[in-house]
């Protein structure tokens, strides 16, 4: 199978402006390195590589310039994207200890638990789906399970010392 198809390069060779993944940018750089002769890039290699990756030739040229800048400064060549990571709305932090502080009778369903914790139902439901909380009866008995584990551990210590 073609290695370019494995990393998400479409088979059609049309040019459009799009964001490339860091893996694709690295592949472009490596392909450009293969086209270097006597310390210079072959004529027409940038549009050729751009056509293979369905990228704009300007983007490929910028990747090449970025690599050359790293090389001339004596740094490790890094052609990764400079787009900011972690943009967008930040996740609301929920204190997991609040769940154990809520009365057991208020932990029976998501609506009453969210009201007691002063968190929206959808946020609480999303966290349950993400696995941050244990859903169902385990929310209700979370504190009891912790006590049971602690009691079981203490019981094992007493049994070991008595033998």
UniProtKB/TrEMBL annotation:
Name of this protein: Uncharacterized protein
């Amino acid at each position: 199978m073609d290695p370019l198809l494995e990393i998400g390069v479409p088979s059609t060779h049309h040019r459009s402006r799009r964001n490339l993944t860091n893996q694709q940018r690295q592949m472009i750089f490596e392909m450009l390195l293969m086209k270097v002769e006597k310390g210079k890039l072959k004529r027409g290699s940038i549009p050729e590589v751009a056509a293979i990756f369905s990228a704009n030739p300007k983007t490929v040229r910028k990747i090449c310039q970025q690599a050359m800048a790293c090389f001339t400064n004596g740094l490790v060549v890094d052609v990764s994207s400079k787009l900011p990571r972690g943009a967008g709305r930040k996740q609301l932090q929920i204190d997991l200890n609040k769940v154990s502080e809520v009365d057991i009778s208020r932990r029976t369903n998501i609506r009453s638990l969210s009201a007691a914790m002063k968190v929206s139902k959808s946020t609480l439901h999303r966290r349950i789906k993400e696995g941050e909380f244990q859903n169902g009866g385990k929310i209700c008995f979370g504190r009891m399970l912790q006590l049971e584990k602690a009691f079981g551990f203490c019981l094992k210590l007493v049994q070991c010392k008595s033998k």
